[in-house]
Every structure is written in C-alpha cells, then in structure tokens.
C-alpha cells in the first residue's frame, strides 16, 4: 500500500568555519527532528562549513558523507545533506584546482547513499548588504545533471539555493516524477527578505509539488548574514509551517493525497506546451 503522508524536516543552522562545531549542531538538530517524528530531514547548504577554504574541506568529503550515513542509520531517518564540497565529479574525474563541486547527498534511513546532485546554478550577484559581492564561480564548478531520488514512495527532486530562481529546473524535476522539491539554502538576509517565501510559493504553485526550503540563518561573520525562515509549502502555495530566524528543526506533514487532488483539479503539467530537455538545450 502506498504511503500517503510523510513527516519531513528542514534543519535550520548558523554554520561557521569550524566543521566539527557545525556537525555537533547539525547532529543535535537532526536528533530533534527525529524525536518530532521526521522520516526525512534536509540540512541547509554548506552545513559542514560556511565561508571556509572549500578545497581543504573537500578533502574530508568521504568522511562527511560517512557522517551523514551514520546519522541516518542511527536515527532511522533519511537525510539530504544540503551541500558538501567535493574534489571529484560524479564520474570520479578531479575538479581542477582551485575549484570544487558543491553537491547535495541523499541517504536513506538504512544509511545508504542514494543520489548526489551537483549544484547547477552558481550565485554570481551583487547584493546591497555588508558582503556586497558574491561570486560562487570563483570557488565552485557547476554541475551538469538534473537529479531525482526515491525515498520510500516519495520522489524527491534535488536542488540547491540559487537553483530556486530557475523555474526550468523545477519543471524538469516535476517532469521526472517529483512530489517534493528540496532547496537546501544559504539565502542572504537581503535577498531572503525580498524573495525567499515568494519563490518557494511560486515554485510550488507552478509545479504542483510540495516545496521545502531549509535555510541557513543568522550572522556567519562580520559581513555575511542569512535569512532563515525555513518552510514547507504545499502545491496550492500555502505555507504549511515555517521557522523564524533562529536555528531549529521544522517538522511538517506532506500529504500526497492533497497533492494528487490539486494536480487533478488544475492539471497544469498536462497543459505545458514547452518541452525542457536539459540544462544546455540548443
């Protein structure tokens, strides 16, 4: 019998430059989410290290993936590790220095790695905050593939932060069968206040999917602050539940019956007249 309801969690953190401190914070919040009944928890972008030397942290990639697997197995809960730096591409070819790939890892409740998604869209923007200039392309090499994964009966479309601004990716994920789109993020305080909820709700309405945003929050240094307000949005664009701007574990219910009813009453995907083939269509 197909499971219709899932308890899913967004882990909201204030990650800094000390990976071991970040892992302790993440572990405590994952345990809190499981205590609240979560079957799947999503960590934010850069959960293990924010504003660090990503090549150095990337040398611990296998160790950090192992940590995710141990957490999932011990808690009996699927986990999506928001993003980790990787020195190798998915085909094991090295990423040319000084760059890394930034990737999200999906692990099932048995502690088995199911999928890896490498961030497609890199945040190169000027923002009216203390940081001012953001250039992810100085540190990261973009990914190439659209990725979905199956956790039980739930099809999950994987994305990271800035990907939220690109509806073509969301359309590819729902075309691949996604019920839930996840956006582990580090949205800045300025862009988050302007667009975070707007983009999450619009993505849910346009795709007929549940959308979960797991964001960083608070002050990460003298010039860098993130918005928080992690939330789950249903396919009608309603905020099921949300956090404020402090660390925490949001646990909320996803109901596939509600999703299917909304998709039947307004079958937007059946009316789609544009075909989106891939990230580099010609």
TrEMBL record:
CDD domains tied to this protein: nit
Residue ranges constituting the CN hydrolase domain according to the UniProt record: 6-256
A Pfam family it matches: CN_hydrolase
Domain of life where this protein originates: Bacteria
MF terms (GO), sorted A to Z: hydrolase activity
Key words of the record: Hydrolase
Family per similarity comment: Belongs to the carbon-nitrogen hydrolase superfamily. NIT1/NIT2 family.
Protein name in the entry: Carbon-nitrogen hydrolase family protein
Species annotation: Alcanivorax jadensis T9
